[in-house]
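Input record (one chain):
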Amino acid sequence: MKINIAISKLSLKTSLCNRSSIFILLLQAIIPVLVMFYFWSSILKGNETIGGLTNYQMIIYYIGVNFVNFFVWYAIDWELNDDIHSGEISNILHRPISLQRYYFNKMIGDRIANIIVLLPILFSDHYI
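The corresponding structure, as predicted from the sequence alone:
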């Protein structure tokens, strides 16, 4: 159990280690929502609906889908590819943890970092 928490903490610290990584996390979260907001606003002018959904409902739906996707999808293939090409995979394989559990715990740390960065935005009164 200690190794699982240690891997998650390391991933969390790595994700929040400098301002540029926090800035990139924010951009990855905000830009798609803003683009889709303006996209659907331009398509659904006024009170028009598509499939029974208004502009507001479409945006809420999109944000909800992204929220679920945030917890479901993880680019493990990119992580594994980077570790193979950098040679880090040999260090991971020598650890007393399975490869699947290592990447799962790394994902948990990354997700916690994302939540920490996005929490102030989600609970602010001044968003879209």
